[in-house]
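Notebook entry, structure prediction.
Reason for the run: the old model in the group folder had no record of what sequence produced it. Starting over properly, with the input documented here first.
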Amino acid sequence: MRWTVRVLLAAAMAAVTASAYAQDIKIATVGPMTGAEAAVGEQMRRGAEMAVKDINAHGGVLGRKLVLTVGDDACDPKQAVTVANQLANAGVVFVAGHYCSSTSIPASAVYADSNVLQITPASTNPALTDDAAKKGWINVFRVCGRDDSQGRIAGNYIASRFKGQPVAVIDDKSTYGKGLADETIKAMAARGVKPAVHDSINQGDSDFSALISKMKQANVKAIYFGGYYREAGLIVRQSKEQGLNAVLMGGDALVTTDLWKITGLAGTGTLMTFPPDPRNLAVAQPVVKEFKAGGYDPEGYTLYTYAAVEVFADAAAKAHSIKVADLSKTMKANKFNSVIGTVGFDKKGDVVGPDYVVYAWNNDGNYAELKR
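New structure, fully documented this time:
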């Protein structure tokens, strides 16, 4: 008799536990947790973890707790597709990711097939949302800007500041880097500026002596670099070492203090484009303080990842659903308060918000927005 009671009690407890776990909402963030861009992967992980912690502390989503999985794509397209399939098979309903456009784009196809909402905090290539819209997908969104906007700001800045001076445009052949460089060239061309040097490198390269010699011969005064912070930092440092004092300008991938670790003082004056720093917004201060209390400065895409999770949670609450069709409809019909300000989306899933601005690295190893 006692054995029967124990069995019944154990079965009941197991059923309750299984029911509780079934109530959890599975979400994920995916980015380069390892590899050359791991510094940004850390930003994304920390942003998502803090958002989940804060949301769960306030009751979760639809009365259910969020459970976060952190996926590593190492900015590799094949690995991204593998991770995306694993997450979809595990029942994840929302992904805050990816970082590299070259991983977000192929992963978006997996998420579309599996009815998983994707909000990237950082992938800026226009093809991500443009192609999704053409295919009729409803699951792809971003809380960051696009490279056609970022390139326009950079191209106009270069055309104005370095008017009549030789300029080089270099890309790293990646989806992000080449796309950003191409958009910058378009903006420069509209202002009558043509690069004196237009070349490419490979991601992972470490010796840029030949490229720098080529730019020295052309007497370039500015270098626009479409690519990531590691190669940008090496080009800056090696250029100074080899007597080329041109100013390097890049995109949002340079917004990490890891750039300064590579350049040191040689990085003083390096330029980059990024939206207005959300750490300065009044609405973000409680979260910024929370991060700093833990010894972490939420730079770059930390708050953008936090905001992606916020938007998902708010959209689910407004839609009373976590189904992608309901979430998509709700996100396109509403605006959402977040740590990066008020966020809205157009019919393609692109964010409607502040445009890019120009930042410069100062000799103290910090960057600041230039006065407009």
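Summary: The chain has a mean pLDDT of 93.
The old model has been moved to the deprecated folder.
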